[in-house]
C-alpha cells in the first residue's frame, strides 16, 4: 500500500475509532438520562421516598434507602480510606522509608489495585462469618474502604512524588519536623491528592460487587451501623432484573441519580483542584 | 444476639416462591406488633445457608429440608402450599394448541431436556420456531421441584443438569417471568404468583401457564382445565387435581430453635397468619397438618 | 523577655516533637497496612480454601468441566474458560479501538474538539459499570439476540459471552484511552519533529516512533484494562446467562470466575466444601492478578529498555 | 563563493492563534545560498525556531499556526504545491535542539528515513548507507560494535551526531539545525561543530544558534531576527565587523558584554564598557 | 574584618551509599567567618551542595547519606548534640536553588517558620515580622497590597526574594544559599544579589555559586572544592589574584577561558591563550 494511502486510511481509522467511542458513550448516557430522567423527573420524589414493605415486588415507595445507603457507606469509607491512603503515601516518601521498602509496598499496592472487587466482598464476608457477625452497613463501609484504599494510595503517592523536592528542602531548612514537612508536601500536591480521593470516591460509589455480600442488600431504610443496608449500584442490579416494569423503571431513575452524582463529583473535583492549583509551587510557571 | 447482628430486626431470606406471602405477613404482623423485618430473596439455598451462617433469623424454603440439613441442625416448620407451573409467552406461536390440549409431563421433559427443538414438533404443527428454554441460576427450590417433576416417578433431574440443558438461566422468579414475557418462543417455569397478577389474580401480563395434561391422553379433560384464574388454580391444587411435585409445601426454618422475636412471628403465621394465605395466591395448610406444625414449633427441634 | 521566649518555645518544641513521634508511628503503621492487608486477604482466602484443596486434586479441579456443588463436583474449567473467553474477546474488541481513539485525541485532534472529546472520555471512565449493564439489557441484549446471533447462525437469547464482551469493551475503553493519551502526550515534541523532519508521514511517525516510545505506558493502560475485565463482576452477572458449562460459541451463555461467586456464593454454604470452593475462586483471581502484575513488570522493564528514547 | 540560492522565502509570516495571538514572524524575505552554512541569530523569542520550522512546514504540527507568504526550494514552492508534505521534508531535513534518539536501535535510527522512503534495494545497500552516514558524522568508530543497541543508550553528544546522520541519510538538499549544540557539554559540542563544519561543503545548512561565537566560527552567512522581523542578513565577516543596523550593533555588543562580565576577566575590547 | 568563625567543620565527610558508593565529601575542615559571605565554588559534582547541606544536616533527608566528622555552630556541635535537628536547622537556615513558594499565601509563606516555632505573641507581632522581613529583601513595596494571594503567583525573581525573607524570619545565625540566582533571569538575579549584599552585614552567609563573577562581586571569602576535597579557601581578593594551588589556577583560568571564547571578543588577558 502506498504510504500516503496508508496515512489516510489510518487517520480515518483513528478518527472513526474516536467517533465510535464517543457515539457509544453518548448512547449510554442518553439512554440513561432519557429513560431515567423521564422517570425521575416525572416523580423526583422517588429518590427521597422510603421503600414500601414490598418495594422489590411492587415498586411501592421510592429508593431513599439506597440513596442513604450509598451516602452512609461510601462517605465514611472514603474518609477512612483517604486518611489511610494519604498516610501510606506519606510514609512511602523518602524521608520515612527506603526506596526498597516503597518499591515493595508499591508492588503490593499494584496487586491490590488489580484485585477484583468481588474478592474484597468475599474476604469481608468470610471475616463476617468467622466473627459471628451479620452483613450490615458497617461491613459495607469496611469493604468499600478496602476497595478504595489502593486506588487512592496510588494517586496520592504519584501526586506527592511530583511535588517539587524544593518544598521539602525549604520546610526542613526552616526547622520543620518530618511531619510538618509531610503536611506541607501534601498541601503542595493537593490538586493531585484531591483528584485521587475523588477518583476513589467515584469508583467506590459506583461499585456493586464489594457491597453485594457485605452490606446486607436490605430493602429497608438503613437502621443503624449494624443493620442491613444497600447502595444504589446494588439496588440497580437488583431492580434491573425485576419482572415488575415499575421497579425496572426505577432502575433507570436510580441510574440517573447515580450518574448525576458521579458527574457532579468530577466537576467539583476539577473546580477544587483548580482552586488549589493556584497555590501549587511552580504551578504558574510550569 | 449482640450488636454485631443487628439487634431486634428479624431478618429473613430464602426462596422467592414464598417471598410475596412472607412480605405480606411481615407487613401485617409488623404493624400489629412493632417488629421490624428485613426480607430478601436469593433462593431457598441462600436462606438455608444464611441461617447456618447466622446471617438471618428465618429461612424461607420452597422445599422440604434435606436430611443433611436436618443433621446440621436445621429446624423447619411448614407454612403453606405453593406450586410451580410451566410458562410460555402469551404470543407463543402455538399458544392456542397449548391452551387447548396442554402438555404432558413427558412432553415437558422432552422440551426441557432439549430432545425437542421446535414448537412445531411439540404440537405437531407447521411451525419451525426454535424453543428457548430458560432456567433459574439461583439456588431455587422451584427449579429443584421442577426437576423432580420432569424426571417422573422415580427419577429426578438435578438443578445443575437442568441449568446446563437450558438456553439461559435467570437469577430469580421475576427475571424468568420477564424473560418469558420478552421472548415469544421461550418456555420456563414459575411460581404461580409470578404468573397471575398479584392483585387481581387474573392473567394480565405476557406470561401464560401451560396446562398440564396429567393423564397424557393428548387433550385437556374438564378436571384438567383450571388455569383461567389463580383462584381456580389454587382450588384445584387444594383439591389435589394438580400433582406434587410441582405443587409443594413451603417451610420456615432456623438454625436450631427460633430466636424469640422470630418464634413469635412464626407462631402468628401458623395461627392468625393463615387467614391471609388464600387472598394472596397460596394454598393454606390443611387443618391437621397445621396442628402438627404448631405442635412441632412448640416442641422445638 | 528572652527567658519567656525560651520557655514558650520549649513547651512548643516538646509538643512538636511529640506530634512528630506519634505521627511517625502512625505513618509507619499506615505504610505496613498495604502489605498487611494483602497478606491478610491471601491468608484468609488460602485458609478457607484448604478444606477443598485437601480433598480434591488441584489439577483435576482445574481441568474438570463438571460443576455441581450439590454432588460435590467442583470442576472450575467452565468458569475459567468463560473468563478467558470474555477477557480475550473484550480486549480484542477494545484495545485496537482504544489505541486508535487515543491516537486521534493525542495526535490528530486539535483545539476544541480535543478538549471536548478527551474530557468527555475522562468523565465516562468514571461511570459505574452497573449502568452500562442496565443500558445493555435494553440495547445490546435485544440487538445480539435478534440480529447478530441469528446472522451468524447461532440461536441465542442475547445473553452470553459475546454480549458481556461487547459491553465490557465499552466499559474499559474510556479507561484505557485516558491512560494511553496521557503517555502519548508525555512524549517530547522532538520525537515527532525528528521523525517528520526526515520525511515520515504522520502515521509512520505514530506507528514506528510514538507507539514504541509510549509503549510502556500504553502497555500499562491495556494491562489495567485487562485487570478490570478479568475481575468484572456486575456486568457479566447481568448479561452472561449464568450457565456453568463449556461455552460452545462466542454467543453461548457461560460463567466467569466472578459470576460463579455471585451466582453461587449465597447458596449451599451449608455444604462446607462449596463455600471453600468459591473462596478458592477468589484466591485464584488474586493469584492471577499477582502473576500478571509480576510478568507485566518484567515485560515493561524490557520494553522500557528497548524502546527508550 | 556560490551565491545562487538553495532556499528563498517570500514575505514569510507566521502567526500563532492560540489563547492570545502571537505574530512570531512578520513577513521575512530571505535567500539562503546553496552549499553554505547560514546562522540565524537573535534574542530569545524573536522567532528563530519559527522561521526555521516554517522552512519545511514543521511548525504545522503545532496547533494554530497560520502561515502566509511562501518558501521556494530552488524553483519549487514549498507551500503552494500538490506534493505531500513528507516529500518536502525529505528534501529539507530538520535536526531538533534536544538530541533525540528514536526508540530504535542505532542502526535503525540511521536507516529510519531511508526505509520509510524505500530508497534502497538490498540489505547490503542499507548497511552501506548506515556506515557511510555514521562515518560522515564521525560516529562510526564509536558505535560500529553496538549497532543493534538502543540509540538512547548513547551519550548526549553521540545522540546529536546520530540525529545528524539520520537526517543526512535521506539525502536532503537543505539541513535545518535548531541550536544543535546548546544541550551539549563543551567537548561534545565541539565534535558536533566539527561535523557541521565538514558537512557544509556538501549541504546547504541553516542553523539557529544563540552563540555569537559559534556563528562566527561556523557560518558563512548570518541572519539577525528581532521581534519576528528580519533586521540584517549578511556574510559573516561583514555582519560582525561592520553591522549595518543600530539593533545589530547593540545585540552583538550586548551579548559580548554580558558574556564578558560573566567571565570576569579584564579586557581591552570596547564592549567591556557596556553596562549589564 | 571579623575573623572569629560562626561555623567550623572538622574533617567533615559524606558518603552516599546507594546502588554505588559515592564519596561526595572527603574530610573537609573549614571555618566560615561570622557576618561574612563565603562563596563555595568548584566544578559540577564536586560536592558543593553536599557540603552546604551537611552544614545543617539537610542531606539527611536524602536516603543513604552517611556522615563522619563534625560541624560546630559557635561552641555547639551540630552532629553530636541532643538538640532535635529542627532546632539546629532553625539556627542554620537554607534557601534552595529553585525558587519555591510554599503552597500558601505570600503572608503565610513568610510567617511559616515563625508560626511553626511559635515565636510570636500576637497577630500584630506577626504582621510586623512579615513586613520587616519583606522590607529586608526589598519585596514589601511590590507585594504589600496582595499579601493574601498565593505565593506561587509571584514572578520567579520575587519568589526567590520571598524565600530569603522566609528564611530570615526565623532569625537564623547562618544562611545557606545554593545557587540562588542560577534559575533567574539577569534582572531578577541582580536584585537578589543586591539583597544578599545588604544582608551580609547582619548574617553569616554561605553561598554555592557556579559563577566566578558572582563570587568576585559578592563574596568576602571563597572556598574551592574539587572532587569532594577542599583545595583552597581564602579571602576573595587573594583567592582570585593569587591562587595558591595549580588546580585553583586552572579552574579560575579555565572558566574564564571558556566564557571568553564564547564571548568571541579579542582579548589581551593571558587566559585568552588557554585552549578550550
Ligand atoms: N506553539 C506556539 N503557540 C503560541 N506561541 C508560540 C508557539 N511557539 C512559539 N510561540 C511564540 O512565538 C514567538 C517566537 O518563538 P520561537 O520559538 O520561534 O522563538 P526563538 O527565537 O526560537 O526563541 P528561543 O531562542 O527561546 O528558542 C515567541 O513569542 C513564542 O512565545
Ligand atoms: N542523593 C544522592 N545519592 C547518591 N549520590 C549523590 C546524591 N546526591 C549527590 N550525589 C553525588 O555526590 C556528588 C556530589 O554531589 P553534589 O550535588 O554535592 O555536587 P555539586 O557540586 O553541588 O554539583 P552541581 O554543581 O552540579 O550542583 C556527585 O557525584 C553526585 O552524583
Ligand atoms: Mg527556539
Ligand atoms: Mg549542587
Ligand atoms: O422459591 P425458590 O426461589 O427457592 O425457587
Automatic annotation (TrEMBL), chain A:
InterPro entries: MetI-like, MetI-like_sf, Phosphate_transprt_permease. Keywords: Membrane, Transmembrane, Transmembrane helix, Transport. It comes from the Archaea. It is a multi-pass membrane protein. The chain crosses the membrane at residues 12-34, 63-86, 107-131, 137-155, 188-206, 251-273. GO terms for cellular component: plasma membrane. Residues 67-269 form the ABC transmembrane type-1 domain. PROSITE patterns: ABC_TM1. It is found in: Cell membrane; Membrane. Its main location: membrane. One of its GO terms (biological process) is transmembrane transport. SUPFAM superfamilies: MetI-like. It holds the Pfam family BPD_transp_1. Belongs to the binding-protein-dependent transport system permease family. This is Binding-protein-dependent transport system inner membrane protein. It comes from Natronorubrum tibetense GA33.
Automatic annotation (TrEMBL), chain C:
CDD domains: TM_PBP2. It comes from Natronorubrum tibetense GA33. NCBIfam families: phosphate_pstC. Belongs to the binding-protein-dependent transport system permease family. CysTW subfamily. Keywords: Cell membrane, Membrane, Phosphate transport, Transmembrane, Transmembrane helix, Transport. Part of the binding-protein-dependent transport system for phosphate; probably responsible for the translocation of the substrate across the membrane. It is a multi-pass membrane protein. The chain crosses the membrane at residues 25-47, 76-105, 117-144, 156-177, 217-240, 277-299. GO terms for molecular function: phosphate transmembrane transporter activity. InterPro entries: MetI-like, MetI-like_sf, Phosphate_PstC, Phosphate_Transport_Permease. Residues 80-296 form the ABC transmembrane type-1 domain. GO terms for biological process: phosphate ion transport. This is Phosphate transport system permease protein. The lineage of its organism: Archaea, Methanobacteriati, Methanobacteriota, Stenosarchaea group, Halobacteria. Its main location: membrane. One of its GO terms (cellular component) is plasma membrane. It is found in: Cell membrane.
TrEMBL record, chains D, E:
It holds the Pfam family ABC_tran. InterPro entries: AAA+_ATPase, ABC_transporter-like_ATP-bd, P-loop_NTPase, PstB-like. GO terms for molecular function: ATP binding; ATP hydrolysis activity; phosphate transmembrane transporter activity. SMART domains: AAA. Residues 7-252 form the ABC transporter domain. The keyword ATP-binding applies. Keywords: ATP-binding, Cell membrane, Membrane, Nucleotide-binding. GO terms for biological process: phosphate ion transmembrane transport. PROSITE patterns: ABC_TRANSPORTER_2. One of its GO terms (cellular component) is membrane. This is ABC transporter. It comes from Natronorubrum tibetense GA33.
Amino acid at each position: 500500500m502506498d504510504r500516503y494511502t496508508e496515512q489516510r486510511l489510518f487517520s480515518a481509522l483513528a478518527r472513526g475509532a474516536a467517533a465510535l467511542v464517543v457515539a457509544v458513550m453518548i448512547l449510554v448516557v442518553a439512554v440513561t438520562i432519557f429513560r431515567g430522567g423521564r422517570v425521575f423527573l416525572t416523580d423526583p420524589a422517588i429518590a427521597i421516598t422510603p421503600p414500601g414493605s414490598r418495594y422489590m415486588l411492587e415498586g411501592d415507595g421510592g429508593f431513599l434507602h439506597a440513596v442513604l445507603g450509598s451516602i452512609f457507606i461510601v462517605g465514611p469509607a472514603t474518609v477512612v480510606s483517604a486518611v489511610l491512603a494519604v498516610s501510606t503515601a506519606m510514609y512511602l516518601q523518602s524521608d520515612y522509608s527506603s526506596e526498597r521498602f516503597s518499591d515493595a509496598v508499591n508492588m503490593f499496592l499494584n496487586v491490590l489495585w488489580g484485585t477484583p472487587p468481588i474478592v474484597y466482598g468475599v474476604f469481608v464476608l468470610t471475616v463476617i462469618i468467622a466473627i459471628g457477625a451479620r452483613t450490615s452497613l458497617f461491613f459495607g463501609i469496611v469493604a468499600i474502604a478496602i476497595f478504595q484504599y489502593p486506588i487512592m494510595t496510588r494517586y496520592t503517592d504519584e501526586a506527592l512524588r511530583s511535588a517539587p523536592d524544593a518544598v521539602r528542602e525549604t520546610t526542613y531548612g526552616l526547622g520543620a519536623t518530618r511531619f510538618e514537612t509531610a503536611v506541607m508536601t501534601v498541601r503542595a500536591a493537593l490538586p493531585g491528592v484531591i483528584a485521587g480521593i475523588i477518583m476513589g470516591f467515584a469508583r467506590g460509589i459506583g461499585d456493586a460487587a464489594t457491597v453485594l455480600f457485605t452490606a446486607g442488600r436490605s430493602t429497608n431504610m438503613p437502621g443503624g451501623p449494624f443493620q442491613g443496608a444497600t447502595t444504589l449500584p446494588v439496588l440497580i442490579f437488583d431492580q434491573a432484573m425485576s419482572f415488575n416494569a415499575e421497579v425496572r423503571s426505577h432502575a433507570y431513575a436510580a441510574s440517573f441519580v447515580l450518574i448525576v452524582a458521579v458527574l457532579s463529583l468530577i466537576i467539583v473535583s476539577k473546580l477544587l483542584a483548580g482552586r488549589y492549583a493556584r497555590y501549587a509551587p511552580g504551578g504558574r510557571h510550569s | 444476639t449482640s450488636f454485631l447482628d443487628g439487634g431486634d430486626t428479624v431478618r429473613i431470606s430464602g426462596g422467592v416462591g414464598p417471598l410475596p406471602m412472607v412480605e405480606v405477613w411481615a407487613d401485617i404482623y409488623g404493624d400489629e406488633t412493632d417488629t421490624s423485618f428485613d426480607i430478601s430473596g436469593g433462593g431457598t439455598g441462600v436462606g438455608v445457608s444464611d441461617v447456618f451462617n447466622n446471617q438471618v433469623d428465618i429461612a424461607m424454603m420452597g422445599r422440604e429440608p434435606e436430611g443433611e440439613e436436618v443433621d446440621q441442625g436445621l429446624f423447619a416448620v411448614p407454612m403453606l402450599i405453593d406450586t410451580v407451573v410451566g410458562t410460555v409467552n402469551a404470543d407463543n406461536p402455538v399458544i392456542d394448541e397449548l391452551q387447548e390440549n396442554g402438555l404432558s409431563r413427558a412432553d415437558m421433559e422432552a422440551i426441557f431436556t432439549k430432545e425437542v427443538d421446535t414448537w412445531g414438533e411439540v404440537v405437531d404443527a407447521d411451525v419451525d420456531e426454535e424453543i428457548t428454554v430458560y432456567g433459574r441460576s439461583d439456588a431455587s427450590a422451584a427449579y429443584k421441584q421442577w426437576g423432580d417433576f420432569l424426571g417422573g416417578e422415580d427419577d429426578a433431574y438435578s438443578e445443575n443438569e437442568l441449568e446446563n440443558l437450558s438456553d439461559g438461566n435467570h437469577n430469580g422468579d421475576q427475571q424468568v417471568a420477564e424473560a418469558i414475557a420478552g421472548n415469544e418462543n421461550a418456555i420456563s417455569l414459575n411460581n404461580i404468583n409470578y404468573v397471575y397478577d398479584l392483585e387481581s389474580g387474573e392473567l394480565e401480563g405476557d406470561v401464560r401457564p401451560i396446562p398440564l395434561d396429567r393423564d397424557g391422553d393428548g387433550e385437556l379433560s374438564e378436571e384438567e382445565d383450571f388455569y383461567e384464574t389463580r383462584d381456580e388454580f389454587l382450588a384445584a391444587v387444594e383439591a389435589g387435581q394438580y400433582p406434587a411435585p410441582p405443587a409443594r409445601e413451603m417451610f420456615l426454618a432456623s438454625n436450631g430453635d427460633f430466636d424469640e422475636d422470630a418464634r413469635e412471628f412464626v407462631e402468628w403465621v401458623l395461627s392468625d397468619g393463615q387467614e391471609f394465605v388464600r387472598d394472596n395466591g397460596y394454598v393454606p395448610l390443611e387443618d391437621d397438618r397445621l396442628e402438627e406444625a404448631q405442635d412441632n414449633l412448640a416442641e422445638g427441634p | 523577655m528572652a527567658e519567656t521566649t525560651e520557655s514558650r518555645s520549649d513547651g512548643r518544641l516538646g509538643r512538636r516533637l511529640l506530634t512528630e513521634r506519634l505521627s511517625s508511628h502512625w505513618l509507619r503503621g499506615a505504610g505496613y497496612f498495604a502489605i498487611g492487608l494483602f497478606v491478610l486477604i491471601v491468608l484468609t482466602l488460602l485458609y478457607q480454601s484448604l478444606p477443598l484443596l485437601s480433598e480434591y486434586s488441584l489439577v483435576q479441579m482445574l481441568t474438570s468441566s463438571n460443576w455441581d456443588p450439590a454432588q460435590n463436583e467442583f470442576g472450575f474449567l467452565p468458569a475459567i474458560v468463560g473468563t478467558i473467553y470474555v477477557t480475550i474477546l473484550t480486549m480484542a474488541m477494545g484495545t485496537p479501538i482504544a489505541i486508535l481513539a487515543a491516537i486521534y485525541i493525542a495526535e490528530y485532534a486539535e483545539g476544541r474538539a480535543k478538549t471536548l472529546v478527551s474530557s468527555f472520555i475522562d468523565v465516562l471512565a468514571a461511570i459505574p459499570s452497573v449502568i452500562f449493564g442496565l443500558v445493555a439489557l435494553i440495547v445490546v441484549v435485544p440487538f445480539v439476540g435478534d440480529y447478530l446471533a441469528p446472522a451468524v447462525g447461532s440461536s441465542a437469547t442475547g445473553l452470553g459471552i459475546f454480549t458481556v464482551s461487547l459491553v465490557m469493551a465499552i466499559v474499559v475503553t474510556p479507561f484505557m484511552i485516558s491512560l494511553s493519551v496521557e503517555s502519548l502526550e508525555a512524549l517530547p515534541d522532538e520525537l515527532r519533529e525528528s521523525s517528520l523532519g526526515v520525511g515520515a508521514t504522520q502515521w509512520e511517525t505514530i506507528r514506528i516512533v510514538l507507539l514504541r516510545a509510549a509503549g510502556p505506558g500504553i502497555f500499562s493502560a491495556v494491562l489495567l484494562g485487562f485487570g478490570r475485565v478479568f475481575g468484572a463482576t456486575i456486568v457479566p452477572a447481568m448479561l452472561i446467562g449464568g450457565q456453568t458449562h463449556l461455552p460452545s460459541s462466542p454467543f453461548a451463555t457461560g460463567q466467569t470466575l466472578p459470576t460463579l461467586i455471585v451466582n453461587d456464593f449465597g447458596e449451599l454454604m451449608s455444604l462446607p466444601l462449596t463455600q471453600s470452593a468459591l473462596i478458592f475462586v477468589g484466591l485464584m483471581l488474586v493469584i492471577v492478578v499477582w502473576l500478571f502484575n509480576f510478568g507485566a513488570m518484567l515485560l515493561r522493564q524490557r520494553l522500557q529498555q528497548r524502546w527508550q528514547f | 563563493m556560490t551565491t545562487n540560492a538553495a532556499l528563498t522565502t517570500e514575505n514569510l509570516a507566521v502567526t500563532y492563534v492560540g489563547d492570545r495571538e502571537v505574530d512570531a514572524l512578520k513577513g521575512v524575505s530571505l535567500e539562503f545560498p546553496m552549499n553554505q552554512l547560514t546562522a540565524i541569530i537573535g534574542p530569545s523569542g524573536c522567532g528563530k525556531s519559527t522561521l526555521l520550522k516554517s522552512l519545511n512546514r514543521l511548525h504545522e504540527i503545532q496547533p494554530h499556526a497560520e502561515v502566509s507568504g511562501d518558501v521556494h526550494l530552488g524553483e519549487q514552492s514549498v507551500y503552494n504545491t500538490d506534493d505531500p508534505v513528507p516529500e518536502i521534508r525529505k528534501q529539507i531535513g530538520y535536526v531538533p535542539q534536544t538530541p533525540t534518539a528514536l526508540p530504535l536501535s542505532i542502526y535503525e535510527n540511521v536507516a529510519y528515513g531511508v526505509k520509510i522512503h524505500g530508497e534502497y534495494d538490498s540489505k547490503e545497500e542499507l548497511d552501506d548507507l548506515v556506515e557511510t552516514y555514521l562515518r560522515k558524522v564521525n560516529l562510526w568508530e564509536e558505535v560500529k560494535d553496538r549497532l543493534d543497541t538502543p540509540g538512547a543508550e548513547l551519550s548526549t553528544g553521540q545522540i546529536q551526531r546520530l540525529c545528524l546522520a539520520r537526517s543526512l541519510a535521506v539525502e536532503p538538499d537543505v539541513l535545518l539545525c535548531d541550536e544543535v549544540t546548546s544541550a551539549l557539554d563543551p567537548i561534545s559540542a565541539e565534535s558536533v561543530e566539527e561535523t557541521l563544519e565538514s558537512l557544509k561543503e556538501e549541504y546547504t545548512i541553516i542553523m539557529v544558534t544563540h552563540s555569537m561565537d559559534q556563528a562566527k566560527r561556523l557560518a558563512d552567512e548570518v541572519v539577525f531576527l528581532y521581534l519576528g522581523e528580519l533586521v540584517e542578513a549578511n556574510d559573516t565577516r561583514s555582519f560582525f565587523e561592520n553591522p549595518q543596523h543600530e539593533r545589530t550593533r547593540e545585540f552583538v555588543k550586548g551579548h559580548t558584554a554580558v558574556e564578558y562580565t560573566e567571565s570576569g576577566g579584564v579586557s581591552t575590547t570596547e564592549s567591556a564598557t557596556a553596562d549589564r
